[in-house]
Write a structure and sequence with these properties.
The chain is mainly α. The chain contains 6 helices and 3 strands, in the order ααβααββαα. A 3-stranded antiparallel β-sheet has the order 1-3-2.
Length: 145
């Protein structure tokens, strides 16, 4: 088997995927920081917004934040009054997390602004292109899962 030619088939995909993510992250993060939040804080606020309280484990599954980082992020957001914890009636070993009024207010201010910011780049794609990209990314994801 010719390993070099095999690698050459998928290495360009890996490079483009990484460069695309890096480009998205730079574009998105700069705007979020300009709105007064860290990207991880935005991720948590957007995930908890308009949702029933969720466990730490559920939040971890729904965000893009590693479990080790999520603990500190949540603790700091609780200290800032953005997130509240409550006992989990279904599991005494865990707590449920929810946005506070302050956290919800920040979500209502920041989320629409971030979506408008992202829309500026995504509006350059046709609906067909967006559907094709989404389908390709789902296919790639399914290969890894």
């Amino acid at each position: 088997m010719d390993y070099i030619s095999t690698y050459m088939d998928f290495l360009p995909i890996i490079k483009e995927l990484a460069r695309t993510y890096q480009g998205f992250e730079a574009y998105s993060s700069a705007h979020i920081r300009g709105l007064g939040l860290l990207p991880v804080q935005f991720d948590v606020i957007a995930t908890l917004a308009n949702q029933p309280p969720m466990s730490f484990k559920q939040l971890g599954k729904k965000t893009l934040i590693s479990k080790s980082s999520l603990t500190g992020v949540v603790e700091r957001m609780v200290q800032k009054g953005l997130i509240a914890t409550q006992e989990n009636p279904d599991d005494a070993r865990s707590h449920l997390l929810r946005l506070t009024g302050k956290g919800q207010t920040i979500f209502e201010q920041v989320f629409p602004e971030q979506m408008k910011h992202l829309e500026k780049v995504f509006e350059k794609l046709s609906k067909k292109q967006m559907n094709e990209i989404e389908a390709s990314l789902k296919t790639l994801k399914s290969i890894f899962n």
